[in-house]
Amino acid sequence: MGIVLRRRPGATRWAAWSWRVSGVLPGASNAEWRLLREEGNTCEFHAATLMLELHRADTDSYLHGLNAQVPCLYVVMREADETAHPFELVLVTASPYEAQDYADNGEDIVEKVAMPQSVFAWVQGFVDQHHREEAFKKRRRDKKDITLTSDGVGDARIRQLVDVYRSPALAKKERLQ
Predict the structure, then answer these.
(1) ∠ CA(61), CA(63), CA(67), 5° rounding?
(2) Is residue 29 helix, strand or coil?
(3) Is 70 exceeded by the pLDDT of residue 24?
(4) Which of 8, 27, 110, 147 could covalently link to 103 via disulfide, CB atoms 3.0 to 4.6 Å apart?
């Protein structure tokens, strides 16, 4: 997947540029920050080409993404240390769950882009071939007797003459007497 990034002038004085993923190019050749289009101050770059990998264990996640109102791919980026390129493109995925995991770490930037029809058909075919619905298993309760009461005495296995839940101030008064 070729990843296309759009650079626009920033909306505030603190951000010189605004970067967004504007599209993907299925079957693209390798490219490193190749300028595709320039209109005034707005530029589009073919920033990188990443492999879209699908895994059988994630078919439930892919199915969730395919059933969304607008099926999307997710591009994971990190701010680069070097000044030549502002971002390092890490991953492209069709899994919204995996994208959420990367978004939760706070260091990565996750951009959502509409899934092209050809990629949608490919992912749908993968899910149709490999998805297995898991049967619901109801959890059983422990066989613990819940009618027993402790009356605030604490753990029955530990010998105690007094209530372990009493106020420390009351315990101090008892010791002084």
Answers:
(1) 120
(2) coil
(3) yes
(4) 110
